[in-house]
Amino acid sequence: MSDIAQGGAVRTVASVPIWRDGLVAAAAWLVAAAVSVATPDVVPWGSTQLWAEILTGGAVLLLVLSGTVQWLGRVGRVIVHYGPWLIALGVWFAVWEVVTAKTGWLPKPFFSPPQGLLHVYLVDTTRLGLCVLFSLRLWAYGFGSGVIAGFLVGVALGWSKRFAYWGMPLLKLIGPVPATAWIPCMFFILPTTFSASVFLVALASGIPVAILTASGVGSVNRAYYDVARTLGASERFLVWKVAVPASLPHVFVGLFMGLYYSFAVLVVAEMLGAKYGLGWYLQFQTGYSAYANVYATLVIMALLTSGLVKLLFVTRDRMLSWQKGII
Amino acid sequence: MSAALKLADATRRSVALEVRGVSHAFDLGGKHLPVLDNIDLSVAPGEFVALLGPSGCGKSTLLRLVAGLEQPNTGTLLEDGAPILSPDPSRILVFQDPTLFPWRTVWKNVAVGLEARGLLPAQKQRVADALSLVRLEAFAHAYPHQLSGGMAQRAALARALVNDPHLLLLDEPLGKLDSLTRLAMQNELLSLWQKVGFTALLVTHDVEEALLLADRVIVLSDRPARIVTEFRIEQPRPRRRDDSDLVHLRQTILATLGPIHD
Which candidate from B64, B68, B99 shows the least CB-CB separation from A227? Predict the structure, then answer.
């Protein structure tokens, strides 16, 4: 009790409040920078100097933030929240540096220090950028068409008994087959490898959307239809203004599943048939044992895919804001 | 106030309802379950009729038939002499649950009937009128999960009334409300009926509620429901719960319903 009171008193006495995690993080980043330049790399990686400068820049920024973060409002609170992560990051950079570049304990070519990745981004910028664009294009075509088709099929399956009679057995039979299993025949059946890849990504993302949409439409509270019918709703209104909005929570579950499947299939399809794209780049660089490039690509992929997942979360929260308090 | 009156003036219309020899049964897994047995019933335009009976006796089924949501096995239902073959916005059913669409705001819930019939762009004002009729203007942009039980049921009433129903079918609309809200809503329902002038058919298993509201109370038997007897209630409104005639009538009706009444 008295300890707490004392601690509080000490803090109010200080004229400038200090963000302690920021100071520790700055120190950790500075140590990582020092480790990077203190001894030469066991084998040359390039960009070691630049990496140390970036770390030092980060440390200086953290040092400045330690004294100013409380005036930054909402952004400042987010930064403070991630303080422990910033410390851990500095420690991780230092450890990573030591076990790879400085001691060679994790050897070249299978492992790479951070400056190895940095070097890849600097040297291969254009090709990596093109690969990102190609992957995004394939993903957008595949996921977009798959989701639209899957949603429409799902609505039809959930609404029309006749459509469900013919469609449901097919979906149940074909749905569980991994989309990648279609690769051998699809590359022959469809005219170009790009269209085959689009089809595979669409299949992977469309099937969970179709299944979840169908079950969502099928499980709508019957009373909603009764209410809408007594109010003069046509069949069309019942489908699009009652069944579809009521089943949206299910549809979004399908969208999340489809999103994850689409990434998996996209990379495999690119590894097998594409001339560009991140999957192709991984495959191509592995052939040259250029693992620094592989890790650099994995980092890009992590950022891209988690960004797209985040985007879907934001979309869902906006469209399903009416659910607050129900779930 | 003027808005509410405008709506009332525009809707001072009501219809006669005729139920002739209606019997109905459900097929439950091959088992034949009769629910309505030869129901004959006439409701005059503007009349308020309460259907009283033990729970599960088939009262709600009768309302669904009148709404046109289902067709009876035998017999006919007539609205102003015309057979009832499908749901129509002139006859609106209000359920025990408000069944508001949770993804729509209160305003959009009330607007649903006009929107479904393509009338909304020209008649937006009626949504506001209906909301003010049930005193929910301040909650126009709230979502259903933000409403209390009584407010949600008032929103459901507004959603019905915005369509100028000539016949309002009330399926235990106050059954799930707490007793205080229930008393307030009974008065509210009565004043809406007096203001708007629709024909009302109320299903309830609360004898007191039927006696306070209705011109005529029709007592149904246990399943399959038959009309056992009916009482005309002449007392002027607003009626008092402790009116000696009504208390006496209440005892008579409870005796008719027998020990199965809950």
Answer: B99
